[in-house]
Amino acid sequence: MMVVLLLSVMMVRVLLMDAVVESTAEFDPYKVLGVTRSASQAEIKKVYKRLAKEWHPDKNKNPEAEDMFIKITKSYEILTNEEKRASYDRYGQTDNTHPYGRGHHGFRHFHDNFYFDESFFHFPFNNKGGRDFADSKYTLHFNQYISEVVPDSFKRPYLIKITSDWCFSCIHIEPVWKETVQELETLGIGIGVVDVGYERRLANNLGAHQTPSILGVVNGKVSFFHYAVVKGHLMQFIEDLLPQRLVEKVTDKNNQEFLKSWHELNKPHVLLFDQVPSVPLLYKLTAFAYKDYVQFGYVDQGLSETADLLRKFNINTYAPTMLVFKEDVEKPADIIQAKGMKKQIIDEFISNNKFLLAPRLVNQKLFDELCPVKQFHRRRKYCVLLITGEEESFATGNEAFLSLASANTNDVLRFAYVYQRRQQPLCDVLLKNKDSTLPQVDQVVILERRNGAGKILYKPVSGGWNGSKEDKHKLLEELERLQKDPSILNNDAVLPELNNEFTSMFLIRWIYTAYDYLAEIIDDLLHNNWREVMPLLSLIFSALFILFGTVVIQAFSDSSEEKQPKTKAKEASKAENGSPNTSSTSRFFLVLDITYTSNLVKLRPGHINVVLVLTDPTKNILLSKFAKEVYSFTGSFTLHFSFLNVDKHGEWMAAVLEYAQDAMQIDTDEDEAGSRKLDYTGYVLALNGHKKYLCLFKPVYTGEDLDSKPEEEGGGSRSRKGTTRSRSTTLQIHHKLDRLGLWMERLMEGTLPRYYVPAWPGLDKITVNK
Known about the structure:
This protein is of the alpha/beta class. Helices cover 43% and strands 15% of the residues. The strands form five sheets. Strands 17-19-18-20-21-22 form a six-stranded mixed β-sheet, sandwiched between helices. A five-stranded mixed β-sheet has the order 7-9-8-10-11. Strands 13-12-14-15-16 form a five-stranded mixed β-sheet, with helices on both faces. α3 runs antiparallel to α4 and α19 packs antiparallel against α20. The chain is flat and about 90 Å long. Residues 1-7, 16-25, 95-132, 435-439, 564-594, 666-675 and 704-730 have low confidence and may be disordered.
């Protein structure tokens, strides 16, 4: 009987050891990655990248993808570590594959004789049956954190867990983490998981030196969670991450002061009515996301101090209610009421009410959002801008403009106003034909932005603006004409960047930020976390250095700024006189006769070569003007810019226009005086070499007629007349390309007439005229 029992025990032991050997032998990192034992690190890395992409669980729906992805990652970890690779090459196993190695890796001891696989006990370590892959969709990488999480943390907070393989404490907090994450995701909070084994660089960047760790990121600042991992503490941690003073408590006493601050803050105001005494976390998160656009207030319906507000706006106390107020503080512009307010509903409600009916342009960011740059694939957006003053005498006109904006139902029109004294550079450009002093009456300008460099088309409404019925009627007529014919915007200009009128509030914001950092430092000191304290101290001292350093640099740069306009004036005069200062423009152009084949005959499909026609005397002036006009289009990969010297290649120019008979008809008005030679100076050709067509720009002189000035002045010496005639000719050449920018925009839109050429002239035409 004893013999039978001993044989049975020995058989079980042998079977278990065989199973261990088979389990260990099954995992071969070289076979998993498909590389030889002599493979270099570069080869292993290249294969790993390819296999990781192929077997990533988020992209590969194969049921075995998760297991295969783990094997690939483990193999890469072994083969890129010199010690682990050497151990595997010698003994066929590493610390991760050793069945009786150190600690609890893979298998566990049992009386120093038997070894049991951890899956027998269902230990949740890196296997499909244990720790699930719910965290995989939250996995963060270093580049992803820098490029996505940090910028997004200025709109919503992030909660990040630092974990690693074989971390027992990580398993203990897993249920609480899952439950909290499910609730926080519905509120719009970002979630991240960092595995120290694979993202050591990111963990070091975050300052996480132990696992498990939980941290939050708000406004790019990292804060660590120091308390017991329970759901209540984590929710409070997220709430404490948010800046203070996001939501103001509103009662019967301060509601008028709160709502009437719209004019000073230039923002709509939102009131949330609810029965809970503290502000809900969802509402705080919404206030954080839209803090740059909307001012938020909270009304506790359970307080006796809010009874008048409830009666005034007829609030239903059985469900949360949200009101948005714009210029009218007595009547809400929009209202929403629901028992279970979801984040999606609130976001849509706030997004539709981000701006006042006629907001004041206080900075460039607001201007860019209100009056976006025209996109070719979108509808045109027009901005109706009132230039006014802050004095009481302008109040009537401003109110009339606001009433007109309130009645606007056209989504392509945006109404806004500016104070001339605060945005003087902008107003000087739009009112260049008026006196630069403050206007006695307001002025309305209709404009359309054409590119991000500040170029606009605009039209001032004649007669000014004082808010009368005639002024309203005149403006409405102009807007109706604009819908039918956009070409009525016949003025073009380049706007400077708007002044930031809230710059004076920078010091207050900096004090609030310093207070938040100080509180964080105190909290870290209480927890003796010096590794986290040092980055904060470094950031504060850096901010102080930058702040005071900027003031000192500004003080010393005033004198240099005064000298700068004089230098620019000298450079401009040199350009007008034809000085050879073309170093900055020559890099944009290619000489046609050198690259004729590549720039025209064999030009790739969809590409266009824009060619300026010039002569030796006009070369410097026209190239400088040409560079300025086409600069905003040089970012396009389909446009190429060249110039053609008509003195050398006049036959080629004549041959092209001879083929394009329709183009020749354009110039018949210049050839009425007989058979005199045509002057092609200042012409611009847009050549499509693949489709064999061209678009022609004919110079249009828009400057003043200086030839008439000597006659008005009553004559003068012959030498003086000659000088004036020479100067007039130079100015006319300089103004030949005045409308080229608008022509280029039409070229990009595809609205220019095309003149097809049967065949491009051969190289024999590219010869110097004899």
